[in-house]
Amino acid sequence: MQAWSVEEATVLWNRPVARDTWRMALQAPRLADRIRPGQFLMLRLANGRSDPLLARPYALYDVVRLGSTGDAIGVEIVYLVVGKQTRLLTELRPGETAVVWGPLGNGFDAIPPARHLLLVAGGIGQTPFYAFAAERTGVRHYGAEQRTELAEAVVLCYGARSSDLLACVDDFSRLPIEVVLCTDDGSAGRRGLVTEAAAEWLDRPGNWVVVGCGPEPMLRALQQLCGRRGVPCYLSLEVPMACGFGACFSCAVPVRLGGAVDYRRCCLDGPVFDASEVVF
Ligand SMILES: Cc1cc2nc3c(=O)[nH]c(=O)nc-3n(C[C@H](O)[C@H](O)[C@H](O)COP(=O)(O)OP(=O)(O)OC[C@H]3O[C@@H](n4cnc5c(N)ncnc54)[C@H](O)[C@@H]3O)c2cc1C
Fold first, then answer.
1. Rg (CA), the chain
2. Superfamily of the domain at 5-104
3. Is the pTM of this model over 0.70?
């Protein structure tokens, strides 16, 4: 496992991109140089601000590169405002700092190369998929090595309650992937659950590997859908956690291994799990 490091990161930009959803770039070259799609970072407010006391985890959205050299200088996250820290994050201005540590977690490298990738995102669950889709389509690379396991086809089914909550769709649309939007109220894309759209894609010919990120009911539905069809499925879990590196055991995930239920730490063994092992 690669070592993680702590950096005081300067905010480069921080702006709203959808209802209650913000996109922030942080200058953190050591992290940016190594973080891989599906990995995450922990973020804590700086300058003696200790409320909230605990850091919060955020998935890598993208890496910021210097135009002139291509050097990785920062990371972007996309966050939904749900509580204390995310509300305070919206007040951070360029030039202010936050403390970040990472890269953390197994990331999507836990998923074997796949010819046909079906990414299923619900709510803010699209965030780890931009870097993943960009890399598996050969558009961008992350970390030290150039990866070559390209997918022949990548489909993103992305669902939200309504159109104003869909974030960063333009980024995804610029990638050579199929983007299928779903909203509960029909205000964008097709009306209905994202898992219904996913099921239809699985009816099409392909060696599908499914990857899900989003609210637990969606992940559970995806687990069942893929289990019934015998399709490999991986889930990126967003379990609340305090440290991010395995010390606090606050993010234990029940898993079924060899018929018995055991526990794995989401931060170390995840956040990406084989769906067939996860016990909801
Ligand atoms: C690996 C990982 C990656 C993540 N990536 C992102 C990301 O890219 N963008 C993003 O917006 N969020 C992401 N999250 C979730 C994010 O960490 C939480 O939303 C954040 O901790 C909320 O902090 P807060 O102080 O604003 O809210 P809090 O005050 O801590 O909580 C507000 C409310 O949200 C609930 N809550 C908090 N966290 C979760 C959770 N994980 N699941 C269910 N309910 C929760 C609390 O119970 C409470 O009701 C990720 C989580 C993990 C584990």
1. 18
2. Translation factors (2.40.30.10)
3. yes
